[in-house]
UniProtKB/TrEMBL annotation:
This is Nitrogen regulatory protein P-II family. Gene3D superfamilies: 3.30.70.120. GO terms for biological process: regulation of nitrogen utilization. It holds the Pfam family P-II. Transmembrane segments: none annotated. InterPro entries: N-reg_PII, N-reg_PII-like_a/b, N-reg_PII/ATP_PRibTrfase_C. One of its GO terms (molecular function) is enzyme regulator activity.
């Protein structure tokens, strides 16, 4: 990618039920959107500590943003929803080699030939 501001795939993994909170943090930092996926951790089986059940169900928030934006978002997530919070988020980025915007046009009422 020869772009002056390379794109990053920003992944944020959170405890289930917190993806909307993270998406809102991302929007406030200027991200245009994100994809939220359900996931399950493969770590230890759920256990109870002090009456609180720790579950392996997770959500993954994925967004393609420029490098500067990814740093802003990671900083905001760490401050507001990082490790030690109920959200317990983990963030990481990966380089994006190619990024193509696609556009689906509205269906036409004109007859096809």
């Amino acid at each position: 990618m020869t772009e002056s501001n390379p794109k990053k795939a920003l992944y944020i993994i959170v405890n289930i039920g917190f993806a909307d909170e993270i998406a809102e943090i991302m929007r406030k930092e200027g991200a245009g959107g994100a994809t939220i996926m359900n996931a399950r951790g493969s770590g230890p089986m759920p256990k109870s500590i002090l009456g609180i059940t720790i579950d392996t169900e997770k959500e993954i928030i994925l967004s393609v943003v420029d490098e500067e934006m990814s740093e802003k978002i990671i900083h905001a997530v760490r401050q507001k929803a990082g490790l030690g919070t109920p959200c317990n988020s983990i963030c990481f980025t990966m380089p994006v080699d190619k990024f193509v915007m696609t556009h689906v046009s509205e269906p036409s009422n004109e007859p096809t030939k």
